[in-house]
């Protein structure tokens, strides 16, 4: 089968393309913005990439068009497909029918930590000879690819609550029909498609409706929103993590980089690794609990995590110039920004953190979370915000930070301000869910000059 993927360079659609290619299909695709790391990965697989939405792509005559949720009505190529009555489907639907059918699907859902937890779980299963398939919304450094079919029964997938396609407004994850569902956390996000937190809770409730009675739901015990989701109905076994007191379930005892894993008060494993932050400690507990459902003992899962190399763009050191370190991180929600900064603070102590970020997600561009930004950035010594293209005043939103906040309307202006402020021993943390205009390399080059 020849499939042509519209929106191929998104992390999900790029992973789907890799799976289809591995399965023996001919794969081509197009997107408006083709940039690494996904573009490099796809080209290495021999997948032809086309820039833009030119209707001449109809001449490829694929058997099926697979449509990413970046595509909307009015897109020239999509309109031509509709006019011609050509066959098309969504990415999640294609995945469900051609890859996930008959597998033990382990789906990792939540506002934060999906990519990291999915990668941890895939690595635990790999390290314990389960040969899993996986699709991750990033590039796990243990595998160096974002997706593979695998040879074993388990398939681990990052389960996004964002909508499926312009013609299917259900969350992507309702297509996956998991036997093991991880609910990592749940906050308001995606203000462009959800009116409020209750609307997202409804989608998580729909996910639980797809888990069989013989399945298992792994739930963060600290989240009131997830407790409300469970109250609406759950027909499967429930295993909680992050529990406190005498509540049954998984909890950690110790620091995030070195801790015992306890299940209902009994030590069942120990994790020693290089990752930082309580959020990663909770991610680890979720992955260990999920792996147990496919027969991996918690002690074996915990040992496997010692070799976990994390995901690209998760507090990834991009370079050091004149004693100044520059990091790249995917954090784009205020809570994720705060936990990332906190994790770095725990590592470096009193050394300065210069947080450089762009409000790039649709939710952030709409200004739905601008009031949370001072809270997200309070542990940073200085904060630099790229304000280009925003419909709200970033300077006003960051006013509570006083002279610790700097706003720039272009990448070059922001680079100049960061370079002026940086000094030896500083840690420059760049946070965005996009390429951020190549700011990491621009900063390193400017610092070198």
Automatic annotation (TrEMBL):
Q: Which InterPro entries match?
A: Mpl, Mur-like_cat_sf, Mur_ligase_C, Mur_ligase_C_dom_sf, Mur_ligase_cen, Mur_ligase_N, MurCDEF_pg_biosynth
Q: Which Gene3D superfamilies match?
A: Mur ligase, C-terminal domain, Mur-like, catalytic domain, NAD(P)-binding Rossmann-like Domain
GO MF assignments: ATP binding; UDP-N-acetylmuramate-L-alanyl-gamma-D-glutamyl-meso-2,6-diaminoheptanedioate ligase activity
Q: Which UniProt keywords apply?
A: ATP-binding, Cell cycle, Cell division, Cell shape, Cell wall biogenesis/degradation, Ligase, Magnesium, Membrane, Nucleotide-binding, Peptidoglycan synthesis, Transmembrane
Report residues binding ATP.
110-116
Write down the superkingdom of origin. Answer: Bacteria
The reply to whether Metal-binding figures as a keyword in the UniProt entry is no
EC no. given is 6.3.2.45
Catalyzed reaction equations = UDP-N-acetyl-alpha-D-muramate + L-alanyl-gamma-D-glutamyl-meso-2,6-diaminopimelate + ATP = UDP-N-acetyl-alpha-D-muramoyl-L-alanyl-gamma-D-glutamyl-meso-2,6-diaminopimelate + ADP + phosphate + H(+)
The record's SUPFAM superfamilies line, in alphabetical order, gives: MurCD N-terminal domain, MurD-like peptide ligases, catalytic domain, MurD-like peptide ligases, peptide-binding domain
Q: Which family does it belong to?
A: Belongs to the MurCDEF family. Mpl subfamily.
HAMAP family given in the database record:
Mpl
Identification of the protein by name: UDP-N-acetylmuramate--L-alanyl-gamma-D-glutamyl-meso-2,6-diaminoheptandioate ligase
Organism of this sequence: Methylibium petroleiphilum (strain ATCC BAA-1232 / LMG 22953 / PM1)
